[in-house]
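ok trying this again, last paste got cut off
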Amino acid sequence: MAKILSQDEIDALLNTVSSGEDVDEQFAEQDESFRSVVAYDFKHPNRVSKDQIRNIENIHDNFAGHLGSSLSTITRAMVDIHLVSVDQITYSEFLMSLANPSCTYTVDIDPLNGASIIDFNPTLCFLFIDRMFGGVGKILETDRELTGIEKSVMTKIANKVFEELGLAWSHIETLEFKQVGFETNPQFVQIIPPGETVIVISFQLKMLGSSGLLTICYPYVTLEPLVDKLSLQQWTDATKKGKRDDDAKRIQDSIRKVEMKITANLGETILTLRDFMRLQIGDIIVIDRKVNDPIEVKVNGRGKFIAKPGLHTKFRACEIAGIYTE
């Protein structure tokens, strides 16, 4: 049997229908709030904030530009490097992402108490090796470990990467990257427990129409002393300081190249034109200074120093004794 609505129920139903737009807006607001919710995995927490990640991106974006120029000089070919991603994952996930065999360097970061990993994709390795031996940068389709000679070639490339990394981090901290190990099987590289958080930076290198991946892995425990310095304010202040230091050095280098004329004035006298025309070999000209009197040293015609005349080995010289004052 159908239920008969009372007058109060009918009025309530009509009011609901008339205010349907408000209901829709309410549900839309709730839906929007649900969309802004981001899932958080307590097993894999993000230990580095978004601002700090952006600063790490800035550091390694600058690193990519400088490294590209350095490798272009070494390989005598245009090397283009792009920052692909900066991720926070576990160490075990990072190891599983590497190819086997690989070209993996374990790097000690001084003065930090920890190590990092720099991995060259096999495709990238053979690309560099072929080019360094005079080839056109052909990629070898083979799964094998590097020979001793090939490792020596890649070490030269890796050392340039270590050098540019140190320069890239110099705005934050003075760091020195040193190779402490080399492995072709990444599963043997155990620098931290598998569940520890790492920051992985991936780059794509392009050369002569071919490309490969370069990957840098920083354990969080290694970078932990620098985390506070990666804040936006710290990065801005360090960048300004580095810029001021660079400008000062550039100005000093420019000044050092300026040529200046330096003269030592032993003395002066006044002669008439008649006496000057009568001068002969052996004549003596009396000047206005005694032997032990200091002499004036001029820089570009202006008095600058007081000096004592003498000899240095077989050359006539003067020893600076003070600042010239008029």
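PB: full thing came through this time. Strands lie at 79-90, 103-110, 115-120, 176-183, 197-207, 210-219, 262-265, 295-299, 302-312, 315-323.
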